[in-house]
Amino acid sequence: MGARNRPSSEPRVPLSRERVLRAAVAIADEGGVRALTMRRLAEQVGAEAMSLYHHVANKEDVLDGTVDLLIGEINEVVDRFDPPAEPADWKKAVRRRVLAAREILLRHRWAPALFETRSAVSPQVLRYHDGLIGLMRAGGFSHDLCHHALHALGSRALGFAQELFDPSGAGGGEESVAELEAMAERFPHLVGMLAEVAHDDPDSTLGWCDDQAEFEFGLDIILDGLDRLREAG
Amino acid sequence: MGARNRPSSEPRVPLSRERVLRAAVAIADEGGVRALTMRRLAEQVGAEAMSLYHHVANKEDVLDGTVDLLIGEINEVVDRFDPPAEPADWKKAVRRRVLAAREILLRHRWAPALFETRSAVSPQVLRYHDGLIGLMRAGGFSHDLCHHALHALGSRALGFAQELFDPSGAGGGEESVAELEAMAERFPHLVGMLAEVAHDDPDSTLGWCDDQAEFEFGLDIILDGLDRLREAG
DNA sequence: GGTCGTGACCTTACTCTGTAAGATCGCGGC
DNA sequence: GCCGCGATCTTACAGAGTAAGGTCACGACC
After folding, report:
1. What is the pLDDT of residues A134-175, one digit of tens each?
2. How large a percentage of chain A has pLDDT more than 70?
3. Where in this chain does the record put each HTH tetR-type domain (chains A, B) (predicted)?
4. Alpha-carbon distance B46 to B26, whole Å?
5. How far is the CA of A51 from the C1' of D1 (A)?
6. Structural domain containing residue B225
7. Per-residue DSSP letters for A147-184?
8. Do both B47 and B80 map to the same domain?
9. Best of A124, A145, A164 to mutate (most B CBs within 10 Å, chain B)
């Protein structure tokens, strides 16, 4: 069944690695990586599971490919950015790139976790990092400091970092007073902090934080620290 | 088969959540999370797969449990640390904890990737972070700055961060001269940096870095940045 | 001591996964 | 008209998680 007795009226767009990978991203966007199975992927492109293997080596290849595709999207965007007017603007330029990457990855929440499971280095990731090094070099970094910088940034360079408390997780804000008191006994500092932070921000419930602000806070600490090292170096 | 006609001479140690989780860690240590299946886990504890379900809810629960177990190990170690002699020593104390956590996690390479897939917050993780906040509070941090600090540290707080280039991945150092030249054309800054960094360290091949040093470099940038903010704040 | 409930454990079976092997289909070149 | 060949589909299999129900040992009660 499926495409067996295909009416000749439907022209059948041919499969391709590109089309398969785009479909994979679409499926993951909708249902997470868990939903991305070869059969589901085949269905999405109007084919049978085994037909996919003429365009991708296996499922690992699909996962590698989707990562590459997404970073490629990021590269397309950041490549259009103007180079910094002054060398000293390296920090602004790097910051802008990272935040652009983050913006794209936020549309694919499943991607960061997937990235960390890839062992093969994607060419697009290499290209992205190459661009960052270029900016830092122009800003006065030694090669050595560039190298350290990439390590210091880690996944933050690509616009993500493990979010501390995921609000989508275990029931948000349904804690009873008794449960909260029990928590306060076991984790006094944590509950104290959350009580105060939540008070400052009335929208905030236990475990909710402004991801974007926190991300930028961490990013700025690192960039500022690197800038100081560069000046001293 | 299996435990069916068990001779009464063998006393049969009873299953328990604890024993199952410890076995799970052992299997993952040996063969990675991929090797951790319910059947393999049952075999390890001398039972049948379905018997495990009397002690754990399902496989997700096993994974959650192993995470909790490992962080519990970390907490046992860091809880024995003396509190800092002077408030200003918060940085040393936090640094010491993080590096202790890292040391333990380095013995379970599969764990970091697993952590990032857990949505439920482990009580042991809460306890660990609670301790960090305690140190920072004693060192003069506002609750707000503690909060930012945890976000800035991210997974680094627990002693890991995505390693940039995994040397175990795609063939280390077998690049031909032609391939290297092709790479240099596509990624000039990256290849330039690696050439120089590798030159400084003759042990280093393309893609190899001193993880521990890089980790501490990044950690120190963040801790120094936080210290400056605390003083200014 | 018999019996009976209760859980720990095992057996079987089902659905879903990735993918190997081979059949079939359709189109371009002779 | 025929052939060759690559793209596609069909079938099948091993291994995953786990639902449903059977079995068996042990402690509580009469």
Report:
1. 999 999 999 999 999 999 999 999 998 876 555 444 444 556
2. 86
3. 14-74
4. 14
5. 30
6. 66-162+175-233
7. HHHHHHHGGGGGT----SS-TTSS-TT---HHHHHHHH
8. no
9. A164
